[in-house]
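**Discrete fold encoding**
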Amino acid sequence: MENRTEVLEFILLGLTPDHRERYTFFVMFLLLYLASLLGNGVSLVVAVAESRLHTPMYFFLGNLSCLDICYSTVTMPKMLSGFLTEHQAISFVGCLVQLHFFYFLGSGEGILLGVMAFDRYVAICNPLRYTVIMNKFTCLLLAGATWVAGFFHALMHTTAISQLWFCGPNHIQHFLCDIKPLLKLACSSTTLNLNLLNIATGCIVMTGFCLTLFSYLYIISFLFSKFQSWKSRWKAFLTCASHLTVVALCYVPVLSNYLLASAGESAKREMIITVLYTAVTPVLNPLIYTLRNQEVKSALKKIFSQKHLFGRI
């Protein structure tokens, strides 16, 4: 029987080997993480606490905030600890757990953005039937399907990675356990894993992207057929501006990172793109929705005024 060495832990090399840069990055990413927790936490509390926001749009926005909080927490604490230690070790099981939740929450967010685009399509193109189509059961079903699809998509990748044999170098050229950096270290065939990454992840990403694309094509077509003036068309389309901005922030880096994936791509390029949708996007999402949405700003003022009143009593 052939002796085979097994890798029991990996070393995450992080964003930079320069010790002087590490402390700067630590402060910068700590602020980003705290801003993500605060911004998404406030958005989630407002969506739950304010009865006027108990609508399908804000229900999905609450789910998005919850996903962003969890998504940041899966990646950022480990990244931050890596800036303060010489060698950032992670066990094989710990690596699989991080990879699972990274893909679970990331793919769930991609699908959810497609669901939110469908919600905007119904609200604009079928306003009289909006409450009938997007009833409580439908919203719960769509949100539940988003979380379940993300979970099983991640489980598929985690199971496939767990079957690989890692025998040699254990240094991951990344700040987290992602599939492509791990495939570079595998001593067994990675053909199945690359096919799953291209086909399954491509299908997940493209499902949300196509749902968003077709929803907005229908919205644009509807606006041109129903409204004669550009002012009316633009006013109606502005209700989708926040969602479109978030879609661009999410899909552009993800599409460039995962479609037509290969194990030999530039590690530096992958890390920069990953930073965009793991550290930056979760911070910008609540800012975009809060700053561009009058209803959310009014709800925030109401909540803070009530707290001030109770404080004086």
About this structure: The mean pLDDT is 83. The first strand starts at residue 9 and ends at 12. DSSP finds eleven helices and three strands in the chain.
